[in-house]
Amino acid sequence: MKHLFIANRGEIALRIIRTAKRMGLKTTLAAHAVDLESVASRAAHQTVQIFGDPPVSAYLDIPQLIQAALDNGCDAIHPGYGFLSENEAFAAQAEAAGLCWVGPSSGLIDLMGDKIRARELALQCGLPLVPCVLDSSDEEFRDEIIALGFPVLIKAAAGGGGKGIKIVRQEADLAGAIAQARSEALRYFGDNRIYAERYIERPRHIEVQILADGYGKTLHLGERECSIQRRFQKIIEETPSAAVDSDLRSKICGAAVSLAKTARYRNAGTVEFILGPDGEFYFLEMNTRLQVEHPVTEFVTGLDLVEWQLRIASGEALPFEQSDIAHNGHAIECRINAEDVLSGFVPSSGIIARYIEPEGEGIRVDSGVCELDRLTSAFDPMLAKLIVWGPDRASASKLAEEALRNFCLLGPETNIAYLRALLKQPDYVSGHIDTGFIDRHQDEIFRCMHDESLLEVEVAAAFIALTLPEARVPYSKLAELGAWKN
Ligand code: ADP
Fold first, then answer.
1. Measured between alpha carbons, how far is 194 from 116 in angstroms, rounded to an integer?
2. Element (H, E) at 174
């Protein structure tokens, strides 16, 4: 592998480019017109314009991307996460065009992308599964769900990203939820198959990072806890999990390795589980790509996951053993989104007037933006990730809170103040978290955020007074300017 084509954008494109360049690879980035001036675009050796309207369609256009990679002399494609990263047709067509695909085989992507088939494989490997009802005629499906008992979750077989999942707590809501889930599954994923799972109350989301070289060596890099979610989407992730002791770790990581081994998996991958309050865990799905939250694992293991993805894709065997992988300290990631939290988390756009990342020991920022960038609502609202490391959970969460305080992003609304308020919740601090944490603590988080925001207006006022002495904006006026909040 000599010349990598990056079929992605934003923070993950930049993150991949950095490692690829450090490894001596040439990098070509695909970018829509709205991204031609991005930080990732400036970091790549070259950028090739891709076309599409809406812009997101350019990043989903398989023939265009493959042609661009070939025209520019690339010999490999990294898909990042999201977009086409779990699209078996993209992987297959890349390989058919003679490009090295940085990921597992297309057949494996296909298998794991179908949650029903992935469940069957997990069952063969002896992994524990949440009782479920598979899709059938609407009437039969309904009857079987009633027999399974409420509450249930209805999911799309081809689903991902928390999209289209529905909780049904009573029979009266079932028929409507099935119809809605089916139409959403078709709209989001082009496949209307759905299934229902027993809803585990107050679970934690625990996932295991896998690294497998395709020559039979399949290792795990420990677990990540991703229970802080809003609408089934992760916001804060950490490793290790406060709920996983060494006995549970060896069981859950062993289960993940056994699934990946049986599947003859190759690449970095993630096996997701939910962990019930009774300590029982259940297989959810396997993601055949790099995860958004991979940096927390990198922080505690010292391994660069993108580097190992590239080495494995180039045919290298993993030169270390399970016992060589050490886990040191605690890491936490906070996803920074351009969104107006107080108006129902709607995406926010506009020009970033001021952008200063926090710096210091144990602080890493993976960002796709810089000052004067214009954020559009054309893409996912996540613009950066703050990742911190500390010797233990308490010091890492304190550092995360401090670093967020020093994260200056003026212009579009962000969730920075919300994240800070969340990290201060006593139940978060004590590690009493589960996937219902946000719903239960939302009012308290908003209250805490409100107090913090007032403080931030003063900080913004002081900042303006220092940097723009001519801008004599009275404090009272600033308090009205929601846009100056952090
Ligand atoms: P997606 O692939 O869309 O992310 P998942 O199946 O991974 O969907 O589930 C997303 C989230 O939904 C999980 O992290 C968990 O919080 C919740 N969840 C999924 N299945 C269950 C279940 N059976 N009981 C309770 N919560 C669940």
1. 9
2. helix 174-189
Q: Provide the residue type at 95 as one letter.
A: E
* CATH entry 3.40.50.20 includes domain 3-102: yes
Phi-psi region at 162: left, alpha or beta (left = phi > 0; alpha = psi -120 to 50): left
153 C-beta closer than 6 A to ligand 1: yes
- Closest CA to ligand 1's atom 22: 199
Closest C-alpha residue for ligand 1 atom 6: 284
Query: Which atom of ligand 1 has the smallest separation from the CA of 165?
Result: 3
Is the pTM higher than 0.90? The answer reads yes
Residue 170 phi, psi (nearest 5):
-150, 155
What is the architecture, at CATH level 2, of domain 131-198? Answer: 2-Layer Sandwich (3.30)
What is the whole-number distance in angstroms between the Cα of residue 13 and the centre of ligand 1? 27
Nearest CA-CA partner of 433 in 393, 468, 382, 400: 393
Q: How far is the CA of 284 from the centre of ligand 1 (A)?
A: 7
Pocket test for ligand 1, best of 150, 165, 228 (most atoms within 8 A of CB): 165
Question: Mean pLDDT for the chain?
Answer: 93
Tell the burial category of 176 from Cβ atoms under 10 Å away from its Cβ (0-12, 13-18, 19+): exposed
Two tokens, residue 403 = 């670093």
**27 alpha carbon, distance to own chain's centre:** 23
Q: 347 CB under 6 A from ligand 1?
A: no
Per the DSSP assignment, residues forming a β-bridge with 458 are none
pLDDT single digits (tens) 253-306: 999 999 999 999 999 999 999 999 999 999 999 999 999 999 999 999 999 999
Q: Just list the catalytic residues.
A: 289
What pLDDT sits at residue 126? 96
* 204-464 is a CATH 3.40.50.2300 domain: no
Atom of ligand 1 nearest to the CA of 201: 25
Break the chain into its structural domains and give their ranges: 3-102, 131-198, 204-464
Place of tokens 């065009």: 97
Atom in ligand 1 nearest the alpha carbon of residue 163: 3
Percent of the chain with pLDDT over 90: 89
